[in-house]
């Protein structure tokens, strides 16, 4: 229902504005979907976080991990309920896990940070940015840009993991990176019946 409403708004904009090609129409539709579809989900996520007495952790983790997720990409479930569940898992589960699975030994933290860094570098190199048929990334220039930004975001997150004084916060970020990396893998696309942009559209050469 929300998708149909967003498509209707896009058509209204298109009918009133001249010279809107197919590419610009996709961009407009994405913006409309972001306003009416994604922002309410984010608001619900924060509300759930505060109801579970972990609101500030949810806010902080969201603003730290969201850039990494936007650059690396990953699956998007086809229903708004599915997206809401996925978003909740990605941002709330790491906070819960960090409360109960936390090892005080700093060496273990460094080992885990090293493992998540190595695995992330490999995943970014091979699979990022992992687009979808609804939001395809076909330009070689954009792919390269997002890949570089993914590495930069990873370095920032790794620095926070190592240098911040709160171990629970460090574990929270490690778990969040791990879960986000799972959404980029081909097995996740197969299990959720997602498709990459190149499977649907012709690849550009720019």
Describe this structure in words.
With 206 residues, the protein is an all-alpha fold. 75% of the residues lie in helices and 0% in strands. It has helices at residues 2-16, 22-51, 55-72, 80-100, 106-127, 140-163, 167-184, 186-192. α3 (55-72) runs parallel beside α7 (167-184). The protein is globular, with a radius of gyration of 18 Å.
Helix content: over 70%
Low-confidence parts lasting 5 or more residues at pLDDT below 50? none
User: What overall geometry do the principal axes of the alpha carbons give?
Assistant: globular
Give the SSE string: HHHHHHHH
Mean pLDDT: 87
Structural class: mainly alpha
Sheet having the most strands: none
Instruction: Report the sheet-strand fraction.
Output: under 5%
How widely separated are the two ends? Answer: 36 Å
SS elements, strand count? 0
Could you tell me the radius of gyration in angstroms? 18 Å
